[in-house]
Write a sequence for this structure.
């Protein structure tokens, strides 16, 4: 017969093993079974875990029973709380006729891979809630969002004493119709209006934040009415603490998943047959040298933004602009970008139980526009959320000028400054070009005012530059992929107009010394 001294650690080990195994299956179970059954699973897992620990410590049967009961409550609370939260929000949305997607948010421990439920995200479409171009809610929109807000308020009343108060962030989103700055201001005003509704149901203003993301984070194709409707939405994010909120805000900034859909309007196209003397263009841009890029993640899926429709014959995208410099490229036949789509998505701090939208960038700059998102502001004070950014740059990306010869011309862009924190652009760059560089007839363009966006992958970062004045510059935009570890350019593409058509040329700029 084994002694109790031998049995105690064995009981503890079994209890922990069974408990962890039960917790590991809770997420799957919650997604597949009713709430009542899911709660039972959580209770059983918790009871086995805590009851086993009491037994291992030498407790009698009464203590073991009490420990099991307490463990059952803990298991149920941990495994069921956010599932129940998601279910109730979905029920409210269905009752009010709201088009909504509700997900549980998990925080991922980078060192262990373990996940912890920390909040809820709800994406709610806002058709007919706001008049076009207005941040004033319609009476029906106000009523529906108040009903939804009451659910957030009801949950708050059950927060445990001594724990950090939950924070709620409201993010306004628009489609890409209109200018980027106007959309950002409109979306911020709408987010604040919804934040006021949250405050009206009893949530302290100090715990409410709002942000206007404008058209910078599309979840659907902006070239279709259905897609634009999906992009016009209000996003609710409730998390356990301000610390988690900061992580969430940073995770969304410069996230490459939002490049699956561009922000440009429906591109104008022309059948190739209408271009006299032209042969059918290749869908692959010309490359002046072998390009080595990362392979997409094994589990990534790409929803490529197609042209307005699948054409019966090859087409070329039309592009307005002055042009004037031929970089030896090929006609652009798609808004897709092979260059961008091969960037491995950056590991996320969070894991959504439901599948994410797209996981890697696929739109080229010719199918995109400059993207502007606003700061996260507190509803009570108007101050910006502190996210403790640093001023450290990625290696080699600390304000230098990058240049390359392209078909006998020189293309330069800079200063290129990219911060380590979320790959943020530190300074607006300028583009400049020298035509016929080797001849006496060479001509240098003025400095071209530009704006840049960045999209961060796991080891690479996409640097996207747009000319501010698209009509009067030789180049509309360029994409450059940098290795953020080595501070070197991996590859790039220049998009430019030529007789009304869009052309793309490959280049690989070097840092000017």
């Amino acid at each position: 017969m084994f002694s109790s001294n031998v049995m105690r650690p064995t009981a503890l080990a079994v209890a922990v093993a069974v408990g962890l195994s039960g917790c590991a299956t809770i997420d799957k179970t919650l997604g597949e079974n009713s709430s009542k059954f899911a709660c039972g699973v959580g209770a059983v897992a918790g009871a086995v875990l805590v009851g086993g620990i009491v037994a291992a410590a030498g407790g009698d049967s009464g203590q073991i029973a009490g420990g099991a009961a307490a463990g059952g409550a803990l298991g149920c609370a941990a495994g069921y709380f956010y599932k129940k939260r998601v279910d109730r929000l979905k029920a409210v949305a269905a009752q009010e006729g709201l088009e909504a997607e509700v997900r549980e948010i998990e925080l991922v421990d980078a060192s262990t891979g373990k996940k912890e439920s920390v909040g809820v995200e709800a994406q709610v479409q806002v058709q007919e809630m706001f008049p076009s171009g207005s941040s004033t809610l319609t009476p029906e929109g106000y009523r529906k969002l108040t009903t939804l807000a009451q659910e957030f308020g009801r949950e708050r009343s059950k927060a445990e004493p001594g724990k950090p108060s939950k924070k709620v962030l409201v993010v306004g989103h628009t489609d890409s119709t209109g200018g980027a700055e106007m959309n950002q201001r409109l979306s911020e005003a709408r987010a604040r209006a919804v934040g006021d509704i949250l405050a009206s149901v009893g949530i302290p203003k100090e715990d409410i934040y709002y942000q206007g993301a404008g058209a910078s984070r599309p979840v659907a194709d902006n070239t279709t009415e259905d897609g634009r409707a999906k992009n016009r939405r209000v996003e609710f994010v409730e998390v356990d603490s301000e610390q988690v909120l900061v992580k969430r805000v940073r995770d969304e900034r410069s996230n490459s998943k939002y490049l699956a859909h561009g922000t440009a309007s429906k591109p104008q196209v022309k059948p190739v047959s209408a271009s006299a003397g032209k042969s059918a263009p290749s869908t692959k841009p010309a490359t002046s040298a072998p390009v080595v890029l990362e392979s997409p993640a094994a589990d990534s899926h790409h929803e490529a933004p197609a042209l307005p429709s699948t054409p019966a014959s090859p087409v070329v995208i039309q592009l307005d602009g002055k042009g004037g410099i031929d970089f030896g490229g090929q006609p652009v036949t798609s808004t897709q970008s092979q260059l961008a789509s091969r960037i491995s998505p950056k590991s996320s701090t969070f894991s959504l139980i439901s599948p994410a939208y797209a996981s890697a960038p696929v739109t080229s700059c010719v199918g995109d526009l400059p993207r502007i998102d606003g700061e996260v502001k507190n509803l009570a004070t108007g101050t910006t959320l502190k996210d403790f950014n640093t001023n450290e740059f990625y290696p080699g990306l600390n304000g230098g000028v990058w240049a390359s010869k392209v078909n006998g011309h020189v293309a330069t862009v800079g200063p290129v400054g990219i911060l380590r924190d979320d790959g943020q652009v530190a300074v607006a760059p300028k583009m400049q070009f020298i035509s016929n560089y080797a001849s006496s007839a060479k001509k240098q363009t003025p400095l071209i005012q530009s704006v840049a966006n960045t999209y961060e992958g796991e080891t690479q970062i996409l640097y996207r530059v747009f000319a501010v004045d698209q009509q009067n510059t030789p180049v509309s935009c360029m994409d450059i992929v940098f290795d953020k570890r080595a501070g070197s350019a991996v590859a790039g593409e220049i998009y430019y107009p030529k007789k009304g058509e869009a052309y793309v040329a490959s280049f690989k700029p070097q840092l000017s010394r």
About this structure: Residues 4-92 form one domain.
